[in-house]
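Give me the fold.
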Amino acid sequence: MTVQHRTGSKASFTNGGTIIMRPTTPHWHML
């Protein structure tokens, strides 16, 4: 599942609930 994020950051959500923020990416990517 991917969602738009206004800051242009990417958040990777793992099954363990860990959120990984990555700058300068156009969207949030859910693993």
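The mean pLDDT is 58.
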